[in-house]
Design brief:
Layout (H helix, E strand, L loop, with lengths): L2 H11 L1 H39 L3 E5 L3 H10 L7 E2 L2 H6 L4 E11 L13 E5 L8 H7 L8 E4 L12 E3 L2 E8 L10 E5 H14 L10 E2 L1 E6 L5 H11 L3 E5 L5 H39 L1 H9 L4 H33 L1 H8 L8 H31 L3 H6 L1
Parallel strand pairs: 4-8, 5-7
Antiparallel strand pairs: 1-10, 1-11, 2-9, 3-4, 3-10, 5-8, 6-7
Helix pairs in contact: 1-10, 2-8, 2-10, 2-12, 8-12, 10-12
């Protein structure tokens, strides 16, 4: 007798039992995939944001580290300022190789003089920049001129327009940076000269002027000299430059990392509880099914079926249900995360980047494997017990 055909017939013969097992497999596989997708996606976003900045140390005004991190990660507008004189002071610290200042600005909210609302704007100094300029020269062969900009992956020119309008100023979008899953994907980069020109134009062309305090910057990106200890340089900057806080790249986004760790712990607890309850429920369902089918299995044994054949038929049934339920759970979870990605990001307050196709396949395979393992373990004991029952005893019960 064909083993697969027998298992499929038994599945069709008791739809309620089958759907209970499928539902449990769906929950286990779906929760496992959701946990890995969200946590790994947030972790990848944090790492990509740090790599995109390209700095060993980011120096911000003291007390503004949370605002700066929120702006870089979640595109939250942040107006933070410190004197541009700190750049020279930082450059004089032993071990500092390059210092590049940046300005953090934002577009106006729901204003006719802006094509987009509340966009995070980053102005940089092209003469010292080591983040945007090298990428631009590699991508388009040159840096940005006056009135030009480069945007994150989600920045685009409005339909029917030739440029992006901010504060009554028209910006040409030269290129888009690869996605990071962070606020940088919705940010616009320009030179200091363009930002100053925009502020000048906004005085007459915008409902509200773009204010850039004179001789001020928002942050300074630092790259240390080769072979120099980053932590030692950060300590020296803190000692020698008053009013600023140096943040090492490895220590960036600590609040978000703690939040991510808390989310991971919560998800693992939920997954563990769901897994345990699913295994118990599946075990109970298969125990009831085995008791109901004692006579049927006894007849099979009397007709010459071996214990191994009976055991394999029951485990085959469990495996088919696990694959079916796990597959449905993975598909539904993937669709929910794909369709409601922005809502998930806003709800969790964490950045999120969808994984590459190979990584997604690996994570999905892990979720499906967990579902198959759970159902198989739950079915193993009742399947083993009934397969080792003597045919005569089984047929009398």
């Amino acid at each position: 007798m064909n083993l697969t055909r027998l298992a499929l017939r038994n599945i069709a013969g008791n739809s309620f039992r089958s759907w209970v097992v499928i539902l449990c497999a769906m929950l286990v596989a779906g929760l496992a995939l959701a946990t890995t997708l969200v946590i790994r996606g947030a972790e990848n976003s944090l790492n990509l944001a740090i790599n995109r900045l390209g700095a060993d140390i980011i120096v911000v005004p003291e007390g503004s580290e949370t605002k700066v991190e929120g702006a870089l990660l979640m595109s939250t507008p942040a107006n933070v300022w410190m004197p541009d004189s700190v750049v020279a002071k930082i450059a004089n610290v032993p071990g500092v190789g390059v210092v590049s200042p940046q300005l953090y600005l934002s577009s106006m909210e729901n204003s006719p003089c802006c094509s987009v609302s509340n966009m995070f704007l980053v102005a940089y100094d092209p003469t010292t920049d080591f983040t945007v300029e090298p990428w631009l020269k590699q991508k388009i062969g040159s840096g940005l001129n006056l009135g030009e900009s480069v945007g994150g992956t989600y920045v685009f020119v409005p339909e029917g327009e030739q440029a992006i309008k901010l504060y009554g100023y028209y910006l040409t979008l030269k290129a888009n940076i690869e996605p990071t899953g962070t606020g940088l994907d919705q940010s616009l980069f320009m030179t200091f000269d363009t930002a100053s020109d925009m502020a000048r134009i906004s005085k007459t062309m915008a409902v509200e002027s773009l204010i850039i305090p004179e001789n001020s910057i928002s942050a300074a990106l630092v790259r240390v000299s080769p072979g120099v200890n980053i932590h030692d340089v950060a300590v020296e900057i803190f000692r020698e430059v008053p009013g600023v806080l140096p943040i090492e790249s490895l220590n960036m986004f600590q609040a978000y990392r703690q939040q991510m760790n808390g989310l991971l712990r919560s998800n693992l607890i939920i997954l563990t509880i769901t897994w345990a309850l699913s295994v118990l429920l599946i075990g109970l369902v298969f125990s009831m099914a085995a008791n109901e089918r004692r006579r049927e299995l006894g007849v099979l044994r009397a007709m010459g079926a071996t214990r191994v054949f009976v055991l394999r038929s029951l485990l085959m049934e469990a495996g088919i249900l696990a694959v079916g339920g796990g597959g449905i759970g993975l598909i539904l979870t993937g669709l929910v995360i794909l369709l409601f990605r922005n809502l998930i990001v806003q709800s969790l307050g964490l950045p999120f980047l969808l994984p590459s196709i190979p990584s997604l396949i690996t994570q999905a395979a892990g979720g499906l494997g967990l579902a198959i393992l759970s159902v198989t373990l739950a079915a193993l004991i009742p399947a083993y017990r009934i397969s080792h029952t003597e045919p005569a005893v089984a047929m009398r019960e």
